[in-house]
């Protein structure tokens, strides 16, 4: 047909090549306007073609993110990160299942969720990327390369350790998963110093309080010994001193407990 109209085979091939080139140029010069949604609100819409990502930062300075890769879902999906403080009654089952020798970095558990048209989904076509950050104040001098992200396995009713990559320069721990649940970043208690548990500022405050208490004790020894008042009869100032004494006693006991655990570990 083309030959009858004066088209040669070479001209036809040339037209095809030009069409292909123009198509490539369009992709280069005019990329798709639709890109993966990226938010910092803890919620985003992930599409089947582009995926999506959301992150949120806690009041403790920990940033948590969830990223759905391209083709990770088969339909437009709402992804969400819900922050739960460890003392929340809703978490009682999960917290009780945390080993007694573990300390939860940032004191939060993170609930990762995904829904399609209002219906909950928990698995994906491709692994989801989860990142949890931590601060220098929260870990002290611990060996960061040993940190592992844990997730809650509903079927087994236990915490599962996930293979984790730790960026020690930027304090970022990363893992992948194809299931959503509660996630956390725990540290073995035997490795934690008082600095890591309470934070630098808290420890400095306790040192100051300890010095104040010692001064008060010296002053009390100089004065005549008097019977301690019942709490109900104490003034506000006296109650504050009493509370400081109790706090110091707790810190002393905690320090002794850590030293005891470390000595027992050393003997193993």
Structure description:
Residues 24-30 and 199-208 have low confidence and may be disordered. The chain has helices at residues 9-29, 92-96, 136-139, 194-198, 200-222, 236-267; strands at 37-39, 43-46, 52-57, 63-68, 77-85, 102-104, 108-116, 119-121, 123-133, 150-153, 158-161, 165-167, 172-179, 182-184, 186-188. The protein has 6 helices and 15 strands. The longest helix is centred in the C-terminal third of the chain and has 32 residues, at 236-267. The protein has 3 domains: 1-31; 37-190, Chondroitinase Ac, Chain A, domain 3 (Sandwich), CATH 2.60.220; 194-267, no CATH class. 34% of the residues lie in helices and 29% in strands. The strands form 3 sheets. Strands 2, 5, 7, 8, 10, 11 and 14 form a 7-stranded antiparallel β-sheet that branches. It is an alpha+beta fold. Helix 5 packs across helix 6 (236-267).
**CATH architecture annotation of the largest domain:** Sandwich
Specify the overall morphology.
Answer: elongated
Structural class, please?
alpha+beta
**Which bin fits the share of residues in helices?**
25-40%
- The N- and C-terminal alpha carbons lie at a distance of 89 Å
What oligomeric assembly is this protein in? Answer: single chain
| CATH class membership of the largest domain | Mainly Beta
Contiguous runs where pLDDT drops below 50 for at least 5 residues: 24-30, 199-208
| Mean pLDDT across residues | 78
The portion of residues forming beta strands comes to: 25-35%
Q: Largest sheet, if any?
A: 7 strands, antiparallel
In the CATH hierarchy, the third-tier topology of the largest domain is known as Chondroitinase Ac, Chain A, domain 3
The total count of helices amounts to: 6
Write the H/E string, N to C: HEEEEEHEEEEHEEEEEEHHH
The total count of strands amounts to: 15
* Radius of gyration of CA atoms, rounded to a whole number: 29 Å
The domain count comes to 3
